[in-house]
Amino acid sequence: MISNYKPFKSASSIFALILIFTFHTDIFSQTKNLNYYVENAVKNSPVIKENTKLISTEALRKELIYSQYKKPHIFGTANYLFAPSFGEVGYDSAVTNGGLYSALINLEMPLFTGFSSDAKIEEIKNDIASYSNTILATEHEIRKNIADQYFRVFQEQEQITAIDEILKILDFQKGIVEKMAERSIGKISDITLIDIEIQSQLIAKKQLQTNLEADLMDLNLLAGIDDTVVVSLEEPMIQLTPDVKDNSNFLLSYNLDSLKLITEQKLNETSYRPQFTFFVNGGLNAVTYDEMWKKVGVSTGFNISFDIFNGGQKNLNDKLTEIKKQNISTSKAIFLSQNQKRKKFLLKEIDDLKKLSEPLEKQILNYQTLLNLYSSEFISGEVSLLDYINVLKNYVTFKSEIINNKNQQSIIINEYNYWNW
Fold first, then answer.
1. Which of 22, 160, 382, 417 could be bridged to 377 by S-S, CB 3.0 to 4.6 A?
2. Mean pLDDT of the chain
3. Alpha-carbon dihedral sign for residues 272, 274, 278, 283
4. At a CB cut-off of 8 Å and minimum separation 6, what does 160 contact?
């Protein structure tokens, strides 16, 4: 019976070792860390690239405002008016003079534009600050999303490593069972039982490897990395950040919104202020063909425009702005309150997981000790292989619990750090 079993034994062992070696070399061919993916994601982010380019327009926009409010506007105009009379029918000649022939070069210079130009410059500064804040917030969002996906892949990698450990134990135990069977002190059914368990672990490993490859692909996509190689990830060393309390960077968006409202109010006010313009023009300005060459000259003066009554629009705009300011203050206060509660809850979750990890670690040590005892007792015939396999399965379960616990801690710490920013 034993000699009939040997070919199966040999083929099964070789197959298992080939699979173990193949999976192991595939997964651990290269090593990457969390910073590698974060840096690539930041570098490849289209949002960051777009806002960086928008920031670079600051000087051009300021120059445009300066040109608009501080430099003269020179332009040409040409007019021709013909107003014929048909007998006694036609425009009054006192109004039209029968026609108009004009070709002028004009210069207009806005005066007293300091308030308007300052408000426009302030608007540009607010926009630049908004672009910078978008970059900052995007980088922060990227770090969280990349880290979450990294933890997922690392968890699967750790679970595969745990299965490799179990496969080594099973392979070692199988060698003992085979020797016992050859000496007629073991059962062929024990070899079959251990082969079944090895196959179960290999199937579980293959499923984990498939999941790891898919999740690693998602990680590369998030980071903008064009790579399909399966790599090994370094253990992420993530720590809780000190409590920022009420100095959160999330408040920058509320502060920027308030500044934008103040600037918007100033821009509205500019439209109700008097507008002064100095002008000079020169050229041809005539109403008849006669001696047109004598009708060349220059003129200069000032234009002033101002509102007398516009239905109280300024006061209405001021009231609307005040309502918007109140809404921003309310939203800011609600965020601060909710965020503090959120962070307290996350800290409690982290503390609960840490408290759970200690008994899990102790239990895994107990199972390791028990496995060593069962291995010796199995050889002496005091326990069955089935009992040993059951203890090994419990060891696998607790090993998986420890991996999940550590991964969950990393995810929640990452969540806390995201909101504690």
1. 382
2. 86
3. positive
4. 23, 27, 205, 208, 209, 212
- Mean pLDDT value across residues 57-74: 91
The predicted pLDDT at position 159 comes to: 94
Q: How confident is the model over 267-295, as a mean pLDDT?
A: 86
Q: Which residue has the tokens 């980088």?
A: 139
CB 9 within 8 A of CB 191: yes
Rounded-to-integer distance, Cα 375 and Cα 385, Å: 9
CB 342, CB 419: distance < 8 Å: yes
- Summarised one tens digit per residue, pLDDT across range 205-232 is 999 999 999 999 999 999 999 888 889 9
Place of tokens 């496969």: 167
End-to-end CA distance of the chain: give it in Å, rounded: 69
In DSSP terms, 285 is beta-bridged to 102
**Which residue, among 243, 242, 218, has the nearest Cα to 151 in the 3D structure?**
218
SS3 label, residue 347? helix
Residue bearing tokens 């021709």:
80
Residue 108: partners with Cβ closer than 8 Å, 6 or more residues away: 72, 73, 75, 277, 278, 279
Length of the chain: 421
Cα gap 219→4, rounded to integer Å: 50
Joined together, the tokens standing for residue 37 give 């993916």
Encoding tokens for residue 378?
Answer: 């199995």
